[in-house]
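Weekly sync, protein design subgroup
Attendees: M.S., D.O., the rotation student, P.L. (late)

Item 1: inverse folding check
M.S. brought a backbone from last month's batch and wanted to see whether the design step gives back something sensible before we order anything. D.O. pointed out we never logged the input encoding, so this time it goes straight into the notes. C-alpha cells as presented (318 positions):
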C-alpha cells in the first residue's frame, strides 16, 4: 500500500487479516493537513482498525487525532471519565481495585468479553482511540473482530434468517451475568468500586434494540451488527429457538481464528470503528496493573431504539 505522506508509512496490520492497517511515524504536524485527515478517514472506513505506532503518542496527540474522525463526547458513565480530561475514559485494573474474573479456571483482572461500546444505548458511538498509560509486564492484549468479514462468513440460509431481526441489549456491568458471551465458565471474583456504583443504577437505563444486520453507508458492505456482551436475545423471538439462533450466529462471528489480538507497546494508539468491529480485553494476572485511556468519538447510525412497554420508542416498525 502506498504511503499517504513521504515521512510516515501505511502498511497492513497483520498478514492475511481482512481488516486493519498500521500507520507509522504520525505526528501532530501531519494532522495540520486537511488532505492527511481526509486520507486517514478513508483508511478508517476501508479498514475498520488503525494502529498508530512509532509516532507521537500523548494525551494531546490522542485527543487531536481522535478529532480527525469526529466530535468527542464524555462517556455515559461519569465514573469512567478521566479526572481533568472529560473526553478521556480511564480503563484501569489495579491489584487493590478493579474487576476480576475466573475465566475457565484462570484469574483475569480487567477481563472483558467480545462487545461493542455503548451497545446498551440506542445511539452507539462511532469509535474511539485507545492508548496505554501503564502496561502490565504480562497479558493485557486487546482483541478485534471485523463484522463485515463475519457477515461474509455466514451461510446464506443463516443470513436469510437474521435479515430484518433485532437484538435487545441492556446495561450489565457484571460480565459473568452476560448470557451470550460464549466464553465458557465465567465467575465474578471482585467488582471494581466504580462498577459497583454503575450497577446500582442499571435499572434506570432503558433496554434498547439494534438491527442484526445493516449496510455501511460509505461502501454498501453488509455488517453483522451483534454485540455478544450486553445482549439479552432476539426481539422478534424471545424463545429458546431465538436464543439458539443468536448463539449460532455469535459462535461463527467470534471464531478465534479470525480475531486479531494486539500486543501493546508503550507508544501505541489504536483506533477502531465501533459500528463494524467487536473488541475484547484478555485481562491481566490479578497482581498486575493495567491503565488505558480511550476517547469516545460521537456518532449515531440512527438505527437503534429505546424500548418502552409498547415496543420501540419512535416511528420504527418491526
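Designed sequence read out in the meeting:
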Amino acid at each position: 500500500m502506498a504511503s499517504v505522506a513521504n515521512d510516515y508509512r501505511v502498511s497492513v496490520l497483520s498478514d492475511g487479516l481482512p481488516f486493519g492497517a498500521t500507520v507509522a511515524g504520525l505526528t501532530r504536524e501531519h494532522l495540520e493537513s486537511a488532505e492527511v485527515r481526509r486520507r486517514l478517514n478513508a483508511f478508517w472506513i476501508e479498514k475498520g482498525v488503525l494502529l498508530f505506532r512509532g509516532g507521537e503518542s500523548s494525551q494531546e496527540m490522542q485527543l487531536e487525532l481522535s478529532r480527525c474522525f469526529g466530535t468527542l463526547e464524555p462517556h455515559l458513565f461519569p465514573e469512567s471519565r478521566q479526572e481533568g480530561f472529560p473526553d478521556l475514559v480511564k480503563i484501569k485494573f489495579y491489584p487493590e481495585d478493579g474487576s476480576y474474573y475466573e475465566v475457565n479456571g484462570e484469574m483475569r483482572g480487567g477481563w472483558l468479553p467480545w462487545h461493542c461500546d455503548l451497545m446498551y444505548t440506542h445511539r452507539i458511538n462511532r469509535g474511539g482511540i485507545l492508548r496505554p498509560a501503564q502496561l502490565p509486564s504480562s497479558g493485557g492484549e486487546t482483541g478485534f473482530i471485523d463484522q463485515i468479514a463475519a457477515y461474509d462468513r455466514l451461510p446464506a440460509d443463516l443470513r436469510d434468517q437474521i435479515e430484518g431481526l433485532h437484538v435487545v441489549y441492556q446495561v450489565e456491568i457484571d460480565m459473568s451475568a452476560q448470557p451470550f458471551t460464549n466464553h465458557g465458565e465465567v465467575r465474578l471474583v471482585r467488582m471494581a468500586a466504580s462498577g459497583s456504583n454503575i450497577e446500582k443504577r442499571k435499572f434506570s437505563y432503558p433496554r434498547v434494540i439494534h438491527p442484526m444486520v445493516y449496510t455501511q453507508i460509505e461502501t454498501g458492505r453488509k455488517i453483522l451488527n451483534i454485540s455478544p456482551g450486553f445482549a439479552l436475545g432476539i426481539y422478534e423471538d424471545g424463545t429458546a429457538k431465538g436464543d439458539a439462533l443468536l448463539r449460532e450466529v455469535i459462535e461463527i462471528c467470534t471464531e478465534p481464528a479470525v480475531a486479531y489480538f494486539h500486543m501493546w507497546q508503550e507508544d501505541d494508539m489504536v483506533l477502531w470503528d465501533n459500528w463494524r468491529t467487536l473488541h475484547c480485553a484478555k485481562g491481566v494476572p490479578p497482581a498486575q496493573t493495567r491503565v488505558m485511556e480511550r476517547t469516545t468519538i460521537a456518532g449515531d447510525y440512527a438505527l437503534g431504539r429505546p424500548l418502552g412497554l409498547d415496543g420501540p420508542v419512535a416511528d420504527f416498525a418491526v
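Discussion: The CA atoms of residues 175 and 232 lie 13 Å apart. Helices lie at 34-47, 59-67, 147-153, 156-162, 193-200, 240-253.
Action: P.L. to compare against the previous round before Friday.
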